[in-house]
Amino acid sequence: MTQAESGTILVVGDPISAELARTLDLCGRTWHGMCFNDDPSGVEPTDGWVGAIIDLSNDPESGWSVARGLRRSDRDPVRTLILVSGGQLAELSHRDDLFDDFCLTPFHPSEIEARLNHLLATAGPIATRSEVVLYENLALNLETYQASVSDRPLDLTYMEYELLKFLVQNPGKVFSREMLLSRVWGYDYYGGARTVDVHVRRLRAKLGEEHADLIQTVRSVGYRFGHLRWRA
Amino acid sequence: MREQQCDYVLKTASERGVRMVRLWFTDVLGNLKSFAISQNELENALNDGMTFDGSSIDGFSRIQESDVLAIPDPDTFQILPLGDKGAAEARVFCDIHHLDGTPFTGDPRQVLRRHVEAARNEGLTFYVAPDIEFFYFNTPQTGERPIPLDNGGYFDLTTRDVTGDLRKQTIRTLEQIGIPVEYSFHEDSPSQQEIDLRHDDALTMADSVMTFRLIVREVAAAHGVYATFMPKPLEGVQGSGMHTHLSLFTGDDNAFYDEDDAYNLSPLAKSFMAGLLHHAAEITAITNPTVNSYKRLVPGFEAPVHLSWARNNRSGLIRVPIAKRGNPLATRLEYRSPDPSCNPYLAFSLMLAAGLKGVREGYELPVEADANLFELDDNALTKLGIGQLPQSLAEALRAMEQSELVREALGEHIFEWFLRNKRREWMDYKTHVSQFEIDRYLGTL
Questions:
Q1: CATH code assigned to A3-121
Q2: Are residues B92 and B147 both part of a single domain?
Q3: Distance of residue B98 Cα from the nearest chain A Cα, in angstroms
Q4: Can you give the residue range of the structural domain that contains B43?
Q5: Closest Cα in chain A to B199
Q6: What is the pLDDT of residues B180-233, one digit of tens each?
Q7: Which of these, A115, A213, B213, B223, is most buried using a 10 Å CB contact count?
């Protein structure tokens, strides 16, 4: 048996449905169940989790926060399967970096099994996206967290960096403040959309006058990163 | 979240070759304090904090409990454009804790954090935008009067504008480290400048004010002049204030705005304003903490004297600026008495506490005072029911001493220490025989 077949899968849900538990047992998987509030690091096997299943259907906010924890940069990302209900599909948009596959609930047991087999069979580390993201003369190194514009390093705080990263990876799209708040900050932030405005203004200040217009305000909608094509 | 932030800080420090990390905190009087650690120590500091002897910091611990713990706030990690090329320096603000991990009661940043979090638990976010005034002077010899660099006035664009260049460079540096500037201009008095910062949440803004004062002084020093936030450095011209724009948000909505009100002010805004007016005298020792502060708060120099509010009248204590294009998000109050010598953490804490007290207890807002109050005599003012701000540090301390609101808001430790320290300052001043007295009395009496 390979490690992918025998290793332990982290299963997170609140609660973990009996249906899911039965499915995993029937396909012979070793798994460890956890609630959202538990800390996975204490119970993690020494050779790491072989994969993770996060059931978002009852509490997407806590679910994404667990998913984010599993993608911390100082460890190998854990292959993650997300369970969502049909009404929650919008939750998935612009969170591609947090999961590898998803399955709708209520699910068919054989679909879970098939998706899990496929997910865990893919050999080697997860193909990560290119480490350097470029837009005109703005560069972001996702590995080292460094950003520069016209070869001048930008000294960003963590949240400024995360916001810029999200925007640079999605040029040309208009995002509402609420969308930016939930995708960049996660839900565990109280400040409301005003927080986004404050950070955008700080980012523009750091980009400097000549590059401040990289982040455009779209009146009464939100923000868009990048220059429109016909202006370039 | 904190784990990710710390990871980001450590990687950035190593990528950017940061040699020194400055751990910043603020004493009770509002002085920036700093100690430096090398990059190797950073991880340790982020995880466990750094112990230091607090007994030599103004307003910190007593000798018998002298050791305290500085725990860096990774969200404030910022590389500074001040160090030598190739040896970058960074700063990070710290929260001070007792060795057992509980918040240290003498730490002003913890006081503001407590107030901001209490408001947040009621669903309110407190936003602040200060307009900070200061003077540039040529470095005088000891005992000399300060010498302005120019004789410009309000909005003046002088040729070979030295102070304009200084201001420009200051703003560039501020923006580079993420302190956005809204307006800047030459103020009324010779060599006086004003820089208006963009609103931010109160804790971030208090950090920014501390950074701002350092950057302004550093840029001036690099040009062989000096900058001062002394409230009234020159007699006969305007002093330096720190008018502070305040607003409260519930989620995405401005809790001060009400479309249907004649003033576009919500009931919450009105009782908040009533709270500020009612408790203004009690919090003045904190917003205007020096003997010199009260030489600014006199009639005739656009500084407030009376406990009043109005929309477009700059002689009152609180102004309700008319929002551009009736923008609901821009509805705010401008509290005009503070000066830039204050401790911003404590000043913002008390403005919030006074306002929220008005909200919780449903204070009634007095009528708007739209006449120019400087032109009214005391009788007329009494008839209008308009009182005055404290006229001296001694008066302000007396009002503070009797204030349950201030005692509770600052905590026993800071409350007692501040009063003791400032009473000593007042005694030193009271026993000083000034040039004024020599000139006036020596020959004639």
A1: 3.40.50.2300
A2: no
A3: 27
A4: 2-97
A5: A198
A6: 998 877 777 788 889 999 999 999 999 999 999 999 999 999 888 889 999 999
A7: B213
